[in-house]
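thread: overnight batch results

M.L. [08:02]
morning all. the overnight job finished for the chain we discussed friday. pasting input first so we're all looking at the same thing
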Amino acid sequence: MRSVKFSRRGAVLATLAATLALAGPALAQDAPAGKLPVVATFSILGDIVKNVGGDRVSVTALVGPNGDSHVYQPTPAAAKEVAAAAVVFENGLGLEGWMERLVQASGTKAELVVVTKGVTPRFRTASEPQDDDEDEGGAEKTADAHKGHDHGPLDPHAWQNVANVEIYAANIRDGLIKADPAGADVYKANTDAYIAKLKTLDAQVRAAMAKIPAKQRRIITSHDAFGYFGDAYGLKLLAAQGVSTESEASAKDVARIIRQIKAQKIPAVFLENISDPRLTARIAKESGARIGGELYSDALSDDKGPASTYIDMIENNIREFSSALSS
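M.L. [08:03]
and the structure it wrote out:
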């Protein structure tokens, strides 16, 4: 199996490299004149970069709105974007398991910036404390959910804690200044203004969660993307899948979750915009929990949706939590 995997990766690298060779030096002309061409790995990160970079940057997100970074496969077009970029921003913490080979194939000379540098990572193990009333086997299931994922035991969804995005913004600012020193004052001012908005957003989340009775602050989501949110804002979560959407919940996992929902009287099951609705619907039907509104976890909506920016995404999720859990 290992040799087959290696061959497939080698084929991807060869294809991407060949495409770039044909494209030649014209790639750098894709960005609008006078703007710094930068790449962000996924839509949420792309929006944060736009807020920091402002009018001085042209941002391309490799994984677009409603896309799933966990299962994304790089394309020759993605390699061309990375090759042409002055800066490439990635989340890190194992989210982009495909990033190393994409960078290698592109031959990019871009500055590579991991925006979670300085974030305290979250991970769960079999020894992590569970709720006193949690069904037996919960800790074991959580540990098993991490096995075999590219990110290992780390939870990459650090942006779900708004305070962490302040760290993202500072890292993005520093990366842009390094690539474009002439824009330093602009990047600093944009970052300060954006962080002020994030602080307001964080306070808004805390106020909304405080209005939900403590006993009601329990949900199930279609994959484990809200751990940082739960830790920061006092929401207890179950997930039918592991941290990555590549992990499918087994029949045994689903049965255990249904038992746990009934035992703990968990009020709501939420669907995410990147997930298959059938699993969530099945759990809701068999457990009696209501289906809450659509959450945005790993990707923004398109421009016509309710979560076309990071701040809109968090505000949407707060509304959905409040609506489903306050009654």
